[in-house]
Amino acid sequence: MLRQDVRVREGLTACMNCGVCTGVCPAAEFYNYDPRQIVTAVQSQDDDKIEALLRSDTIWYCGECMSCRPRCPRGNTPGYVIQALRTLSQRLGFFVESEKGRQQLALKRIIGQSILDTGYCVHPKLVDPGLHPEQGPVWQWIYDNDQGVYERFSPNYGKVGPGACRKIDDETLDEIRRIFEVSGGQAFFDTIEAHSERKAREMGHEHADDDYMMMVYTTNSGNHQ
Amino acid sequence: MKKHSWQEYQKDVADDKYYYVRSCIRQNFFPGSEAAFLNILRNDLHRDIREDAIHTSCTGIGYHSDIVPIETIMTVVARQFALMTESGYENFASSCITSFGVYSEALEMWHEFPEMEEKTREYLYKATGREFRKPRSVAHASDIIFHHRDEIASKAKYRLVNAATGEPLRGVEHIGCHYAKIFPKNGIGGAEFPYVLAGMIEAWGGQVVDYPERRHCCGFGFRNYLVRANRGYSIANSQKKFESMAPYKPDFILTNCPGCPMFMDRWQYTIAEMEGITYGADGHGIPVLTYEELAGLVLGYDPWELGMQMHQVDVEPLLDKMGVEYDPSAKFLGKNGKYIGQPLDAAVNCGCSGSSIL
C-alpha cells in the first residue's frame, strides 16, 4: 500500500544507511528519533515492522523541514517517506494508537476547519493569546485591536476584495469545499474524526468532543526525548 | 570558492507581469510586508503585478500537518493556476515559502507522474469547471526583490551602513527550509549556498555574517508548533540558532519565510521571559526583518507603514543605526492616525515605548 504513494516512489530508491539524514535532522536532535531507522524499516518491506511504525509515536516527530532531502547522497527523501507513512496511518486508523498520532484530530479541527470556513489555514482570530502565550504582549495588542491594526495595511480587512486577511467570498469557499469533496480531502477529514471517536470512547470519553480534543492538543507524557 | 558557489544555481526570474498569491501566515503577522511588496513593485519599480481577490490558501500548512491529502492540495494548486490563466498572466509569484515548495512539488510530481496531472485536471474541472495552463515561471517573492536589488539600490534613501561610524551593518540571514531544500535548482544559490538574501544585504551596503547553524531550520516543524504539547521542539531549534549567531553580534536577522521571522521574533521573547536570556548586543533582542521590510527601509518607507510595530522585538536600534527618520509616537497608531492603545513592554524590548510587563 505504501508503494501506491508517489512520495515513496519518489523518496526512496535504495538507502545505504549512512545516517546523514539523521545527522542533519532537527527532530533527531530534540526527540528520541532516527529517520534512518524508519527508512530501513520501510526498505525492508517487512509488514510487521511497518505496521508497528504506523501505530507508533515515531512517525509523528518529523517537522517536514525536508533538510534531509538535499543531503542524501542517494537522492532519497526520508521526509517524503514520513508523509506517506502518516497518510497510511490515518487511512488505516492506526494513528489513534499513539499520543502524537492522536493529535491529528486537533490539527484537523483547527487548521482543516479553518481552510473550509475561511479559505485560510490561519487567520488572526485563530491565534488566541490564551492558547499562545509565546506570542507575547504585542500579539495581544494586535488581537485586541485587530481592526485598527490591519486596516492600516489592508483596506479590505474582513471584507470581500483584494488585500491581507480579506474575507474570501462564499462562491470561492464553495469551490474549495467541492475540491475537498471531489479529491478525497473531506473523506480524509471524516476518517480522522471516525477513528478519533472510536478511540475517545475506548479511553473513557463519551465522545471525541472538545474536551478530548484539548486533551490530545495539550498532553505530553514526557516520554519522547 | 564558497563566495561564488551560489552562482552554480541560477534561476530565471521574470522581469515583469506577475500573478501574486498571498501567504496565510504572512498576511496575519506581516501584512505590512505584503503591502510593501506590492507598493515597491508597482510604485518604485513600475512593474505589473496582479492580486486576485478570489485566490485562497494553498492549504500547505494542512498538507505538511498531514491532514490534507496530496490529491487535494494539487487540486487547490491547480485552481490557483487556473485563476492566473484566466487573468492572462504566466509568471506566478508566491509570497509564501511553504506554498513555493508546494507549487514546485506539484509541477515536479506532474512531470514525473503525468497521470497525477491528468487526475488533478479532472478533479478541478469536476469541482469548479475551471481549466489551467502551467505557469511559465514560478518565483518566490524574495526572488523578485533579489532580481530587482540593484534597481532598489539605485533608488535608495538609506543604506545598510552605520550612520555614526560609516561601517557596514552586520546581517545574518535565515532562509526558509522549503525555499531550496526540496528543489535546490529552484532557489538562487541552491540549498547549500543560497544567495537570495545575502545578495540583497550586499547590494544595499551591508555585510553578511556567516554563522555555524545558518542552514538549520527555525523550528516551525508544522505540527511541532501548531500543537501545544509539541512546542518544545520549536523553541529548542530556534534557541540553537540564536546561540549560534549571537557571538557574531548581528545588527539584524533577515528572513524570507512566513513562519521564520515570526518564530525568531516570538521565541526571543519567550526565552527572555522564561530564562532571562537575550541575544542582542545591547542586552535586548536581535531585530528580525522580512526582506520587504529591509527593502522598504532602504527605499525610505516609514517603518510603521511597513508594519514593524507588529514585531515583538523592537526594531528601533536598527533604525537608529541606519539613521532612519521616524516618529516614535506614531508607532502604535491605527488607521487614520487614531491611537488604539499599546502593548506592554517586555524584556526583549528596549523601553522605547509602553510600560514594563515585569
What descriptive keywords fit this protein?
heterodimer; A: 225 residues; mainly alpha; Fumarate Reductase Iron-sulfur Protein, Chain B, domain 2; 2 domains; 14 helices; globular; B: 358 residues; alpha/beta; Glutathione S-transferase Yfyf (Class Pi), Chain A, domain 2; Rossmann fold; four-stranded parallel beta sheet; 16 helices; 8 strands; 43% helix
**What's the CATH C level of the largest domain in chain B?**
Alpha Beta
Helix content of chain B: 40-55%
Question: What is the ordering of alpha helices and beta strands of chain A?
Answer: HHHHHHHHHHHHHH
Which structural class is indicated by helix and strand composition of chain A?
mainly alpha
Q: Calculate Rg of chain A over CA atoms.
A: 20 Å
Q: How is the CATH topology of the largest domain in chain B named?
A: Rossmann fold
SS summary, helix count of chain B: 16
Q: Can you give the mean pLDDT of chain A? A: 96
Taking the sheet with the most strands of chain B, its summary is:
4 strands, parallel
Described by strand count, sense and barrel closure, the largest sheet of chain A is: none
Approximately what portion of the residues of chain B adopt beta-strand conformation?
5-15%
- The total domain count of chain B is 2
Distance between the termini of chain A: 30 Å
Number of DSSP helical runs of chain A:
14
Oligomeric grouping of the chains: heterodimer
The residue-averaged pLDDT of chain B reads 95
Number of domains of chain A: 2
Q: For the terminal residues of chain B, how far apart are their CA atoms? A: 49 Å
Biggest interface and residues each: A-B, 89 and 97 residues
The global form of chain B is globular
How is the topology of this model organized?
The complex is a heterodimer of chains A (225) and B (358).
Chain A: H1 6-11, H2 20-24, H3 26-30, H4 35-44, H5 47-54, H6 68-71, H7 78-92, H8 99-102, H9 104-118, H10 136-144, H11 146-150, H12 170-183, H13 185-202, H14 210-218
Chain B: H1 2-5, E1 18-21, H2 24-29, H3 31-44, E2 49-51, H4 60-64, H5 70-87, E3 91-94, H6 97-112, H7 114-128, E4 137-140, H8 141-147, H9 149-154, E5 170-174, H10 177-180, H11 196-203, E6 207-208, H12 223-226, H13 231-245, E7 252-255, H14 259-275, E8 288-290, H15 291-299, H16 316-322
Parallel strand pairs in B: 1-2, 1-3, 3-4, 5-6, 5-7, 7-8
Helix pairs in contact in B: 3-15, 5-7, 6-7, 8-11, 13-14
